[in-house]
User: Which sequence fits this backbone?
């Protein structure tokens, strides 16, 4: 989602990481250090810089962050970097290094990296303020002192990159949440800001449900009223406190970059080592049994509910119901070779091409047919939340027994619960765990793999 709403800003953090690491390593390379193990030094400073940055949240600079916040980040980062730098001498017994030269290196890194950080901060603010780019469209629900302060901030602080569109007054006799929702849907609104003090609990729930089902971000201007037992993110816009209801780990560019890198590496290995020889073999077996294409292509809904072509090895005889009717037990359309490849999940392997080009991920919520997505989005609450991230070849719901045919409403409801849990609690270790469990299940065989 951050790449959609923020434009290029989703790439900014990885780029800044790369630039800072180049500065750190290039200075170390060109300064005349008398190092016995220069490669070890470069690995040492690079790895610990990354770990320090993660620990200190050095690259966590939001559009509403202040100069004082950045100054604190820089100070904290370089205090620890200084200690780590001099610890290298004793830890690796590099006693020939000039302490003076090491100090010069430290101050050179400090000046270049901090200058780059403040320059980026300044240029981004000017870019938003003057060119009106990299902005987010917002509306405010409520009319009180806090909301007026927030709207004033949106209008006067153009460098923050918020485009205030409309305020909805809850105290007006004709106030109706459905009118708000219609406006938000038709005007490409990204974020909804709500005053808790002016809303009933039922209205808050209704707003949350709308935001979840329509891929909008909802944030609250708090008061002493009870909100919800969820993980809330507390932020300050200028001096105004704001609560975000849902924080998605994959909105963080570093997490997104890590997951995408894993997807590229993993899918490349599968394509080169497995699909390179398996595809011709499957083509021969599929065509020997039935006429038709080798690959089955079907429109499905992915990230931000956008449609894409999902590929599989064809496991059924060519039929007109493939886009409308889900496979069932003892389905007469399934061929003999199709029964085997569906049982072993071999039919899913071509989706690694989708992963490689970026339409899917190895792990994520399973994509559904366009017809199913429309049906479930109308029927199942919070169904659309699963489209906040890329769909996956496998997912948490699948390894927990909710794969294949949806026989009852409970099946899809439980699947959505696992999908939302995955989205809100993503980690690379969770992905690895799901992949291992998927491989184990493929060898063991699954009851609903038909």
Assistant:
């Amino acid at each position: 989602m951050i790449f959609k709403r923020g434009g290029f800003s989703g790439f900014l953090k990885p780029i800044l990481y790369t630039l800072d690491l180049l500065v750190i390593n290039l200075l170390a390379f060109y300064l005349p250090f008398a190092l016995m193990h220069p490669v070890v030094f470069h690995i040492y400073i690079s790895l610990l810089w990354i770990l320090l940055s993660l620990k200190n949240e050095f690259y966590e600079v939001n559009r509403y962050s202040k100069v004082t916040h950045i100054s604190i980040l820089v100070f904290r980062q370089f205090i620890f970097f200084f200690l780590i730098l001099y610890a290298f001498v004793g830890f690796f017994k590099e006693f020939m290094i000039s302490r003076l030269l090491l100090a010069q290196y430290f101050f050179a890194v400090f000046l270049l990296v901090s200058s780059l950080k403040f320059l980026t901060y300044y240029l981004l603010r000017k870019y938003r303020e003057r060119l009106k780019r990299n902005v987010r469209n917002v509306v405010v629900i409520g009319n009180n002192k806090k909301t007026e302060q927030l709207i004033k901030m949106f209008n006067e602080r153009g460098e923050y990159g918020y485009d205030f569109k409309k305020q909805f007054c809850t105290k007006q006799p004709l106030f109706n949440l459905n009118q708000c929702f219609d406006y938000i849907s038709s005007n490409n609104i990204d974020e909804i800001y709500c005053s808790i003090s002016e809303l009933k609990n039922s209205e808050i729930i209704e707003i949350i449900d709308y935001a979840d089902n329509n891929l909008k971000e909802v944030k609250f201007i708090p008061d002493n009223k009870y909100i919800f037992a969820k993980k809330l993110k507390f932020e300050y816009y200028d001096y105004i406190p704001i609560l975000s209801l849902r924080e998605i780990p994959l909105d963080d560019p570093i997490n997104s970059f890590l997951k995408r890198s894993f997807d590229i590496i993993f899918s490349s290995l599968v394509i080169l080592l497995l699909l390179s020889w398996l595809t011709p073999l499957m083509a021969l077996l599929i065509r020997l049994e039935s006429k038709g294409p080798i690959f089955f292509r079907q429109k499905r809904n992915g990230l931000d509910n956008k449609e894409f072509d999902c590929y599989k090895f064809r496991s059924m005889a060519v039929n007109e119901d493939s886009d409308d009717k889900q496979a069932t037990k003892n389905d007469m359309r399934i061929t003999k070779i199709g029964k085997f490849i569906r049982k072993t999940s071999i039919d899913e392997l071509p989706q690694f091409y989708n992963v490689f080009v970026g339409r899917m991920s190895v792990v994520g919520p399973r994509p559904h047919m366009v017809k199913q997505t429309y049906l479930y989005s109308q029927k199942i609450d919070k169904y659309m939340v699963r489209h906040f991230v890329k769909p996956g070849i496998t997912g948490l719901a699948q390894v927990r027994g909710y794969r294949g045919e949806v026989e009852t409403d409970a099946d899809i409801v439980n699947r959505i619960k696992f999908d939302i849990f995955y989205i809100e609690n993503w980690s690379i270790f969770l992905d690895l765990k799901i992949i291992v469990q998927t491989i184990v299940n493929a060898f063991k065989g699954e009851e609903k793999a038909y």
Observations:
- The beta strands are 136-141, 162-168, 191-195, 217-221, 233-237, 240-244, 295-301, 307-313, 361-363, 392-394.
- Residues 396 and 421 are 9 Å apart (CA to CA).
- The two ends are 34 Å apart (CA to CA).
- The chain has three domains: 2-131, 136-247, 253-444.
